[in-house]
Amino acid sequence: MAGDQTTLQDLARKTHELRERLVLVQTELAEMEVTGSAGGGLVTVTMRGDGEVTRVAFDQAALGQGDAESLAALTLTAIRHATDALKSLTADKMAVLTAGMEA
Prior knowledge:
alpha+beta; 3-stranded antiparallel sheet; 3 helices
């Protein structure tokens, strides 16, 4: 029984430590920015780690084309690229967080 209690205490301690590290990683991610672009840089989107888009920039050449539909498509693609970059960054951070955890 005493061995079981130690195991439960160890599990509780590890869970607490993991929660603390998770909060730190979430804070770190929220402060980071990722960028996605489309059309060879015609449209660039900047997104914070919490998923908020903070900037959308259009190259003058994109505006000069006058095709709103194409510009909208490029913007969506840039947002998707930024979202993919954020997912990748988050996965990398989580992998580091959970590295060495025992099953």
